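User:
I study polymers; will you set down one protein's sequence and backbone structure tokens?

Assistant:
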Amino acid sequence: MSQKSCFFFAADQNFFPYACLAARRVLDVSGPVDGFILHTGIVPAEDRSLGERVLGGRIGIIDVTKFMDATNFNRGPHPTLAAYIRLFADQLPEFEPYDRIAYSDADVLFNRSIEDLCNVPLNAPLLAAHDEQTYFDAKFRNHLPVQPGAPKFNSGVLVFNMPLVRREGLLERTRELASEHVYGMDQGPLNVAFEGRWQTMHPFWNVMTNYTSQIPFSRCYARHFAWGKPWDRPPIGVEVDAMAIYRDLAKGTPWAGRFSSSWPIKRGILKNLGRKFDAISGILLNDEKRKRRARFDAEKVSAIFADHADKSMLAVRYPERVTGIAR
């Protein structure tokens, strides 16, 4: 029996334009694949019309506000329900026909066909990439009820193996945890519910813009602008070639002005300079986080976890030790 896959972005009315542009990029670099933008809130008619035009009618744009409101989900301090849409992938009627569902945040720009991501051999309920920052600081293990050495994934790019997710009730468990607001809003509960049940994703599918990433945009399968958005003024940390793609995607729309800045700035120049001395300051200050950062090599780390991904391995415990970052 053939596998049926789709992808989706989730957004509120504020992030809706960026979800449309991100989805357009997916269409540009992928073969035929079903896709959706699920949104909450009242999207202005002109934005919806623009989104439909940009996407050429090839993406389903669906308002799930009533659905989300009907769940009576306790969103707590989070300003928008849209952040939790991914937690209802097992209940949303649009997703009933699909075996694989790829989810992406609206601040992710793809360079490779999302079909390749959906077609990764997947034996676990979830495919995800490590949260790079946890290699340096594993404090999450102190406040999440996880086993010693548990790894943590970033929830910005995920692939759900829906038959297993539904059979094991993993998203139902995630919703229960998220509604308690004890372990964070969505990423913490996902990590608790899926502990030991997620498979390593090739790290190039979720390369986050932070102070330590050394993988250039041109080599990323998908760049996650987690620490600086292309629509920010200025777009700190966003590469010039990525900005050029956003300008092309938004060309001819009222959204184009949001990408008009011609000065993408490297994030935290002084901080990056200071981190060149992490090895020395880590020893002088006896700071374990600085020592780990000094030992981080994105090429080496990516190669290790790319190998794990190629072997369809479950996420390993103590990933920071596997890479030699922690001793």
Q: What stands out?
A: The radius of gyration is 20 Å. The chain has a mean pLDDT of 91. The CA atoms of residues 136 and 293 lie 6 Å apart. The first strand starts at residue 5 and ends at 11.
